[in-house]
């Protein structure tokens, strides 16, 4: 049974001044003889987890899995299931941690998953993927990515991509492809090839 109690104003003898308390005593009293407890909203959590701890948790979650893509993609989907927005900053920090630990296969899996979600389509992400593919020894995929990036962004391909592809070809003794790439370089990037030749 619920009842409401209201604070009554204090009336003085002269009826001239009415003094009302500053704190209203409007409380709902439950049958257990006490004020009703206030519970926090379910969707608002007070303990916020920062992006650094989230990214560390993502790294440990991904590193414990096998190399099966479906298993990794499922775990990553579960990781972001309750997020309102895609946690791009968390994933980028996790990629930096994986890059420091040289977990190239995991980097490739996480970036491909992120790109399949339509997130993180930046040159930095593509460069990290290109670097991971080269370090993992997957040259065919690295060349496919390079051709796709170069054909899509003829005028705006950063010089760091050319430098990376030249260094990949140089270290793998693929000199013909390296000279072919130097032939397609814009005029302002010819200095990269002049140092090699």
From TrEMBL:
- Residues of the signal sequence? none
Q: Which UniProt keywords apply?
A: Repeat
Repeat region (PPR), residues: 122-156
Q: Give the matching InterPro entries.
A: EMB1417-like, PPR_rpt, TPR-like_helical_dom_sf
Q: Tell me which PANTHER family the record gives.
A: OS01G0757700 PROTEIN
> Mind telling me what this protein is named?
Pentacotripeptide-repeat region of PRORP domain-containing protein
Give the organism the record lists: Gossypium darwinii (Darwin's cotton)
